[in-house]
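Structure tokens please, single chain.
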Amino acid sequence: MRDEAALLVADVYEAAGALRRLGERTAGAEGLTQARWQVMSAVSEDALTVPQAARRLGVSRQNVQRVANDLVQLGLAVFAANPDHRGSPLLGLTENGRVVLARVTARAEAAHRELFGDIPEDEIRAARTSLRRLLAALDRREGDPGAG
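Here you go.
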């Protein structure tokens, strides 16, 4: 089991790298970076503060702030007053931002159909179940200060 687990970890890292590269190419086709695409996706349903978007994405507030400023400068997002916190405005998409996000999302969906087209849905579902179990175990381990 130990060897299989190590091989799985290596495969996950390899897949993550390849998927990041695909994400960069997909976003780049619409003039975005993957980071900009992720922030746009995070605020696409509801406008969020930068700290809220950072928590949702699992990245630093400073990183999201930089990307948010870029998106505003590009006319893809806008900061709006936050009635709950004057010092932390809400980031939302502009109409142009919604159009660009829809285009990059459609590109990603087409790439996913191509990538996963030959893999039966039940195998994809089983892989997701296993990965979710692994992520839950990792979350538990991170919450245990004695686990090194």
